Backbone:
């Protein structure tokens, strides 16, 4: 049998050209930390859910929040934010458990649009609630008749939820734009 084996006749790699050494091929990092399906992405989703649910519970625990439209808007926005974050946290847990990448173009588009919408709604609701809270506390001086501490706490928690949602949106949007 005349079969040639690599161990018998070793073949050397040709030397690299000068252009390949100067310009190495671009490597794309598909699973950067903070993206969907990573541990940091899961942590961001968890904190989004935690702070949005806390803002929702604190605001809903007051008896007079339905009388102000901005506070109703905050309850609706944080409710949507908490549901969205919880659903995507479950998707992240699944992806981490089965070691699956969530870098599908359609999924990233859905995540980017959903994160953009929910974070914008949460930010707008927190800003509106902050304006009403300042009006009640500073301008009208009627905190004795209202639940100002709960309003301020809920507004602060909504802002913190938005701060946790913003990196998720930026990572997804960056991943979508870099394709």
Residues:
């Amino acid at each position: 049998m005349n079969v040639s084996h690599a161990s018998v006749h070793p073949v050397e790699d040709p030397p690299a050209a000068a252009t390949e050494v100067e310009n190495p091929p671009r490597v794309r990092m598909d699973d950067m930390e903070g993206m969907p399906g990573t541990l940091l992405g899961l942590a961001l989703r968890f904190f989004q859910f935690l702070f949005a649910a806390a803002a929702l519970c604190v605001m809903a625990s007051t008896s007079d929040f339905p009388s102000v439209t901005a506070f109703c808007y905050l309850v609706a926005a944080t409710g949507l934010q908490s549901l969205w974050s919880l659903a995507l946290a479950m998707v992240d847990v699944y992806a981490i458990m089965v070691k699956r990448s969530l870098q599908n173009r359609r999924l990233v588009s859905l995540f980017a649009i959903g994160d953009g919408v929910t974070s914008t709604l949460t930010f707008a609701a927190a800003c509106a609630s902050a304006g009403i809270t300042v009006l009640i506390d500073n301008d009208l001086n009627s905190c004795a008749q209202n639940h100002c501490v709960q309003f301020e706490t809920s507004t602060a928690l909504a802002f913190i939820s938005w701060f946790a949602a913003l990196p998720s949106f930026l990572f997804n949007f960056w991943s979508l734009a870099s394709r």
Q: What stands out?
A: The CA atoms of residues 31 and 103 lie 8 Å apart.
